[in-house]
Design goal:
Blueprint: E1 9-10, E2 19-24, E3 27-33, H1 40-51, E4 60-64, E5 74-78, E6 83-84, H2 85-89, H3 94-112, E7 115-116, E8 120-122, E9 129-131, H4 137-144, H5 152-164, E10 170-173, E11 182-185, E12 190-194, E13 201-203, H6 207-213, H7 219-229, H8 238-245, H9 247-254, H10 261-276
Antiparallel strand pairs: 1-2, 2-3, 3-5, 4-5, 6-11, 7-10, 8-9, 10-13, 11-12
Helix pairs in contact: 3-7, 5-8, 5-10, 6-8, 9-10
């Protein structure tokens, strides 16, 4: 039984409202409830143990594996120091953004170096992998009914060609690797935490790159990220391949445009992609070295 303060404070991150700052065992902690996906609590705990020491993740303090919707499973972890990276970047200097970008590239390189045999979702605390279905992207787009122009067929062709020319292996994918899920020490400009692993799975080593740079127009930050990644054996055209690997997730997000602004922004982006018939969809060229 977890002993935490009754005055739990909701934390930003995700859109489920299930994560709270609490006090447990005399230290600051974070508790996450899993009412909608009960089995995921044990998976997330196992993932944090797997990558601890390799990535800046919190210690697991307690885990409740079973429960009901009224009393759901939960994961209690330490609360890492630092401020939200998304907020920090709003006023960061070019030098600070380069420092952050280099570290982000290094974290992406570590993730891409954690291999698995096949892509899919984690099904249990042994991190067994349930393979993805054999769905077709064209059929998936049609099922979403996004009202996209015919040019989106060219986008799909471009994405498939890019991924076919990249590295052919699978790795651990955080799947929500962006500033809102990262913490930074504002004084030292060191990344202190990579949090919210609820969407992590096994997939393309380009997927997290695509997620990070999905809406980015920051060439300073992106340049530092890519410079740190290029020596890691992922080949060329990292931004393009990242966008290709991110396409399924971007479309899934766009299909929920009515739920929140980020999803609406995703819908606007895929609409521009369809209108232009390009994967870039009018986004800036962040990868100046091909």
């Amino acid at each position: 039984m977890v002993d935490f303060a009754a005055s739990a404070v909701p934390l930003a991150g995700g859109y489920g409202g299930q994560t709270f700052a609490v006090s447990a065992g005399g230290e600051d902690a974070v508790i996450k409830f899993y009412a909608n996906d009960p089995g995921r609590a044990a998976v997330d705990a196992a993932l944090l143990e797997l990558v601890r020491g390799l990535l800046p993740v919190p210690r697991v303090l307690d885990l409740k594996r079973d429960g009901s919707y009224e009393e759901p499973p939960y994961l209690l972890t330490e609360r890492l120091p630092g401020v939200n990276l998304q907020v920090f970047l709003e006023t960061a200097s070019d030098e600070q953004r380069r420092t952050v970008g280099t570290q982000l590239g290094e974290l992406l390189a570590r993730l891409s170096g954690m291999p698995f045999l096949r892509p899919g979702m984690f099904r249990d605390d042994e991190l067994g992998v349930e393979p993805f279905g054999t769905g077709d992207l064209v059929e998936y787009v049609a099922g979403l009914r996004l009202g996209l122009a015919d040019g989106f067929a060219d986008v799909i062709d471009e994405a498939e060609e890019l991924l076919a020319g990249g590295v052919d292996r699978f790795c651990l994918v955080h799947s929500d690797f962006n500033p809102k899920n990262l913490l930074v020490d504002p004084d030292t400009v060191r990344i202190t935490g990579l949090i919210d692993w609820e969407f992590s799975h096994v997939g393309s080593p380009y997927a997290d790159v695509g997620n990070l740079l999905r809406f980015s127009e920051d060439k300073v930050l992106a340049g530092a990220v890519l410079a740190a990644l290029r020596p890691m054996g992922l080949g060329d055209r990292l931004v393009d391949r990242g966008r290709a690997a991110d396409l399924w997730a971007l479309l899934d997000l766009a299909g929920r445009a009515a739920e929140h602004e980020i999803a609406a922004r995703a819908h606007r982006l895929v609409s521009r992609m369809a209108d232009t018939g390009t994967l870039a969809g009018g986004r800036p060229d962040l990868d100046v070295v091909h």
